[in-house]
Amino acid sequence: MSQVRRGDEHLTMSRATERRGGALRVAASASLALAAALLAGCSSPTDTFESAVGQGLAAVETARLVVEQELDDRTFTTTAVATLGDARRELVDASTSVAETDAPSQTDAALRAEVLDALDAGLDAVNGARDAIGGVGSLEAVVPKLEAAADDLDALERATAGAAADMLADTMGDAPDGGTG
Amino acid sequence: MKKLFAVALGILTAIGGFVDIGDLVTNAVVGSRFGLGLAWVVLVGVVGICVYAQMSGRVAAVSGRATFEIIRERLGPRAGLANLAASFLINLLTVTAEIGGVALALQLATSVDPMWWIPVAAFGVWIVVWRAKFELLENVTGLLGLTLIVFAVALFLLAPDWGSLAGQALQPSVPDGEPVATYWFYAVALFGAAMTPYEVFFFSSGAVEEKWTVKDIGKSRLNVLVGFPLGGLLSIAIAGCAAVVLLPAAIEVTSLSQVVLPVAEAGGKIALAFAIVGILAATFGAALETTLSSGYTLAQYFGWSWGKFRKPAKAARFHLAMIIGILIAVGILATGVDPILVTEYSVVFSAVALPLTYLPILIIANDREYMGDHVNGRVMNAVAQVYLVIILAAALAAIPLLIVTGAGA
Questions:
Q1: Which of A100, A175, B147, B323 could tie B274 with a disulfide, CB 3.0–4.6 Å?
Q2: CB spacing of B252 vs A55 below 8 angstroms
Q3: Helix (H, G, I), strand (E, B) or coil at A159
Q4: End-to-end CA distance of chain B
Q5: Which residue on chain A is closest to B252 by alpha carbon?
Q6: How many domains is chain B partitioned into structurally?
Q7: Are B21 and B286 in contact (CB under 8 A)?
Q8: Would you call A62 and B251 a contact, using CB atoms and an 8 Å cutoff?
Q9: CA dihedral of A65, A70, A76, A78, whole degrees rounded to 10
């Protein structure tokens, strides 16, 4: 009898352990889902565009700086090549992240196209610099292209930052308590 | 004279050996985004590493045994295993980052793709760990790492607005457009980079390798208390260079090639050559230290024969563990993962593991059974406990900040 009771107790404990294990699994899954939601939910298309423009601007400005250093003989060609390679990779990453972002509205779609054009111009200029260092074309001629690409990206960065701020203000205005209104 | 030379050499190698890929990248990233607004974190981190490094050096000098060996004996195998797991995994991540850093530095010098340099760097690390004497590998990389002083020279040559830089450092604030959470994420990363756990294990095991005794405590204190703060100044100089050249140009650092741009801007090719040699020495030296630390922690926990003072055949498992560590690092890098990304994660996860590394050291440094009269004094304990609170706060905040900020994006 006592053995049966002990068996029942064992069974009950096993079930309790199973329930606790199940609860732990649910909690772990919920935590992961929350983390994923936080990571995914925090980035709207405008955020993605703004981040990509910043990334692209940094890459083009890097290329501009290293090209100026190369023209002034202040850097090694090997270092300049490595730097331009890194800048090109950053621009490609930025373009890819924008190209893979869905646009929920016409405004977003137009912004996406504009950002992609600006990033493409930046990539062309950086490729031009890389080619010029390899002996194809003139390095001096690339500088104005890099400056123009940087100016465009800078202007876009201000525009996307403004759009993000407007979106935040709209969201707060839509809040039940009237936001900051 | 000989003693003076030994002390000077120790200090110089401590300066040169303080900076690794984590310090280089994190300081440059922070400088390019926040100016010197996070310089205070470097100061906090340097004081912290001084407190605990000299403590672990004292434990090794007094007991003649490395910290990790005593941790297992004093706290038991379970607590020791938690310590081992955290330290070893972070260490492995850091080995990966350092070998990647060597490959990136070689790319700057040759423009050859870093993927080709990874096996070369790994082989170089292995052969030096296998063949070179401990003092030789420590002194050569530490002294060559001193060429990173070129970042401080470059900062002067750039003739910045010192008032503005001092203002950023003394009245830290979050720049417009940067979320507060991102500022704190980088504060934790910078703290993790300054207090990387391997530095303490390497320091205490190195003390055993060099057969320190109680007589060497003074020398070890000098190495730490002079060398590490000067190394911290180098870190601030790296951030300062980025703040002066990269921040105004909206260049957020994402690659090692951007870290050296301000040096070339300030001092041209000669300065750039010094910077590349310094980065190569710093990352290679740190790759050696982290590889050795992997072997030290495993061997000391499991009670294997260890140490560079023994022939490899007499410490076979110690050397095998290091070879496996290097191969894992190469395997991770062979996936094409960006070494800079690995570095950024390694410093953040270092922050997570800090309490597991530093609490046992504090416990042992207070145990008269091991330390005799050389236990911590009241002031040292008070400072160490304050740091333990900071370390715990950084460890708890690291993962939530990583998630909320999208790794500082």
A1: B147
A2: yes
A3: helix
A4: 52
A5: A58
A6: 1
A7: yes
A8: yes
A9: 80
Given a contact cutoff of 8 angstroms between Cβ atoms, the answer to whether B406 and B179 are in contact is no
Q: Give the model confidence (pLDDT) of A58-82 as tens digits.
A: 999 999 999 999 999 999 999 999 9
Residue B258, domain member (yes or no): yes
CA distance B118 to A45: 37
pLDDT the model gives residue A170 = 59
Determine, yes or no, domain membership for B154. yes
Please provide the distance, in angstroms rounded to a whole number, between the alpha carbons at the two ends of chain A. Answer: 73
Class of the CATH-defined domain A43-169? mainly alpha
Residue B124 sits in which domain range? 2-404
Is residue B77 a contact partner of residue B307, using CB atoms and an 8 Å limit?
no
Instruction: Check if the beta carbon of residue B136 is closer than 8 Å to that of residue B287.
Output: no
Count interface pairs A-B at CB distance under 8 A.
86
Q: Which of A74, A133, A151 to mutate to test the interface with B (most CBs of B within 10 A)?
A: A74
Q: Give yes or no for a contact between B201 and B68, defined as CB atoms under 8 angstroms apart.
A: yes
| CB contact A65 to B (< 8 Å) | yes
CATH number at residue B54: 1.10.4160.10
Q: What percent of chain B has pLDDT over 70?
A: 97
Interface check for A81 against chain B (CB to CB < 8 A): the answer is yes
Tell me which residue in B109, B264, B409 faces A69 most closely, judged by beta carbons: B264
Tell me the two tokens of residue B336.
């094409």
In angstroms, the CA B290 to CA B287 distance is: 5
Residue B144 has pLDDT above 60, yes or no: yes
Q: Do B261 and A74 touch (CB under 8 A)?
A: no
Q: Which two tokens stand for residue B192?
A: 């993790």
**CA separation for the pair A44, A168 (Å, rounded):** 11
What are the structure tokens assigned to B308, written together? 């560079």
Domain boundaries, chain A: 1-42, 43-169
Q: Does B265 touch chain A (CB under 8 A)?
A: yes
Q: What mean pLDDT comes out for the span B211-220?
A: 86
Q: What is the DSSP letter of B373?
A: G
Q: Has residue B409 been placed in a domain?
A: no
In a domain, B89, yes or no: yes
Question: Does the beta-carbon distance from A82 to B257 stay under 8 Å?
Answer: yes
Q: What is the DSSP letter of B133?
A: -
Helix then strand count (H, E) for chain A reads 5, 0
Can you tell me the distance from the alpha carbon of A108 to that of A99, in angstroms, rounded to the nearest whole number?
12
Provide, as residue numbers in chain A, all residues whose Cβ is less than 8 Å from the Cβ of B409.
Answer: 51
The model's confidence at residue B66, banded by pLDDT at 50, 70 and 90, is confident
